[in-house]
Specification:
With about 400 residues, this protein is an alpha/beta fold. The protein contains 16 helices and ten strands. It is globular, with a radius of gyration of 20 Å. The structure holds zinc ion. This is adenosine deaminase.
Length: about 400
């Protein structure tokens, strides 16, 4: 990380951990506890870069931050290696839920790719069931501590592989047993969602929702394909939709070349904002953007907009009325929690409680939940925020 995450929100004098949160984009194989990796690796005979939990955690963060895609991808070799048995999958899923609850998450969607967990002979159905059992055990363990959390699986296909149809059928087969949606992940550039057009059509015919990673490592073509071929109701990251937005200052001299049109101090010099047709579609139709601020900085997804987290277009998108949600992506690799990401926004963009509430309600409303459950979630979040105010 090139930016340091502040320890506490400067303008909010309480621990943001207590805020009820909704997590829509968090990978199961990117959120393991280092100590658990060490124990499972020992049992599996898998060699790790370190067998000290603190050093291993640092190794993950440094590798993810190295700027080397090879090193970044190597981190997942280690987590996936210890998730090849029912016991390993169960434990990782259970602890994942407990860690989300400790972070204040009350509803979470957990994404992962079953096809990556078959190395020791388990079937696709076996691994989905093992993860579901772990998630349910996590929910029970959280309930025993007097808190509530609800979780669902986002069944993911790897976009460089060719199992899209099989994975789509797997997701639909488990729709009443924990699966709430479908996604494709992995190498975005060069692997457009159109490769999985048939699988997405199958999902649509079964009225099964999809979110699609797009607009992270690739640009507008990838987003267009996610929406058209993938029929995406949400975009994984989607941050590069900002490339379809142009801002021209009416008086460039007055505004200054790098003036922030949304900064109060320069509000007299409002720029002309023009949205392309794709950006208009995403904004006007309320397609949710699953923004992961720290991850976007690490992977270079936002490098086209400037350096540092302050150049992340999420604030511009939010101010323009896009359906922005905030997520973690890979808590282990980025070394973050959702609470950390909220603190980062408070520190960087001066967000207050109203902003955090709006971002959280955006996520609740974009959740792949039935309407009644979504309304109950929204009500719960509103009441919790009202109690704080
Ligand atoms: Zn992701």
């Amino acid at each position: 990380m090139t930016e340091t995450i502040p320890d506490a929100a400067p303008d909010l004098d309480f621990d943001l951990k207590v805020l009820p949160k909704v997590s829509l984009h968090d990978h199961l194989d990117g959120g393991l506890r280092p100590a658990t990796i060490i124990e499972l690796a020992e049992a599996a005979g898998h060699t790790l870069p370190s067998t000290d939990p603190v050093a291993l955690g640092e190794w993950f963060r440094e590798s993810a931050d190295s700027g080397s895609l090879v090193r970044y991808l190597e981190t997942f070799d280690h987590t996936i290696a210890v998730m090849q048995t029912k016991e390993g999958l169960f434990r990782v899923a259970k602890e994942f839920v407990e860690d989300l609850a400790d972070d204040g998450v009350v509803y979470g969607e957990v994404r992962w790719a079953p096809e990556q967990h078959l190395q020791q002979g388990l079937s696709l159905d076996d691994v989905v069931e093992a993860v579901q059992a772990g998630l349910e055990a996590g929910v029970d363990a959280v309930a025993e501590t007097g808190r509530d959390i609800q979780v669902g699986q986002l069944i993911t296909a790897m976009r460089h592989a060719d199992r899209g149809q099989e994975i789509a059928e797997l997701a639909v087969r488990h729709r009443y047993k924990g699966a709430v949606g479908f996604d494709i992940a992995g190498a975005e550039d060069g692997f457009l969602p159109s490769r999985f057009r048939d699988a997405f059509t199958y999902l649509a015919q079964h009225n099964f929702p999809a979110t699609v990673h797009a607009g992270e490592a690739a640009g507008l073509d990838s987003i267009q394909s996610a929406l058209v071929d993938g029929r995406a109701l949400r975009l994984g990251h989607g941050v590069r939709i900002a490339e379809d937005i142009t801002i021209e200052f009416e008086d460039a001299d007055e505004a200054g070349a790098d003036a922030d049109i949304f900064d109060d101090e320069v509000s007299d010099t409002i720029g002309m904002v023009t949205l392309g047709e794709l950006a208009s579609w995403v904004r006007d139709r309320g397609i949710a953007l699953e923004i992961c601020p720290s991850s976007n900085l690490q992977t270079g997804a936002i490098s086209g907009f400037g350096e540092g987290i302050e150049s992340h277009p999420l604030d511009m998108l939010y101010q323009l009325g896009f359906n922005v949600t905030i997520n973690t992506d890979n808590r282990l690799m980025s070394g973050v929690t959702l609470t950390d990401e909220f603190e980062l926004l408070v520190e960087t963009f001066d967000y207050d409680l109203d902003d955090l509430l709006e971002l959280t309600l955006n996520a609740a409303e974009a959740a792949f939940l039935p309407l009644e459950e979504k309304e109950a979630l929204v009500e719960y979040i509103n009441e919790a925020y009202a109690d704080l105010g």
